[in-house]
Amino acid sequence: IIAEKMKEQEGGSIINISSMYGLVSPDPSLYEGLDTFNPPSYGAAKSALVQLTKYVAAFYGKYGIRCNAIAPGAFPNTNYDSYKARRFKGCRSVFGFGCVKIYNWASFVS
Q: How far is CA 73 from CA 76, 91, 101, in A?
């Protein structure tokens, strides 16, 4: 529905929010000793969103419609200190990269 409206206006940008778990499987050692885990349905849904993004980009690109997905990394639960220590050892955030794709001047990125 949205892409059809964008066809009428001859362009647009669709940004989907996926997850790193749409691209990689979780490390089981991160959940040792915890009552929580990353369910397989989450990764399957986020992986499907990545594929949908590629599909929409392929079919609607010729109408000037860009479709991209942002796949941010983990959002730690600050209640689990041992989890944080294992998960974020030596990590740096690059989350802001995807935001630039919204603007028309960034259309060459897609």
A: 9, 10, 18
Cβ 52 vs Cβ 18: under 8 Å: no
pLDDT at residue 94 in the model? 42
Q: What is the pLDDT of residues 20-33, one digit of tens each?
A: 888 888 888 878 88
CA separation, residue 74 to residues 3, 50, 84 (Å):
30, 17, 10
- pTM for this model (two decimals): 0.64
42 catalytic residue (yes or no)? yes
CB atoms within 10 A of CB 67: 23
Which residues pair with residue 12 across a beta bridge? Answer: 65
Catalytic residue, candidates 31, 42, 63, 80: 42
Contact call for residues 109 and 21 (beta carbons, < 8 A): no
Q: What is the mean pLDDT of residues 86-107?
A: 46
Strands 12-17 and 65-70 turn out to be parallel
CA distance 87 to 76: 8
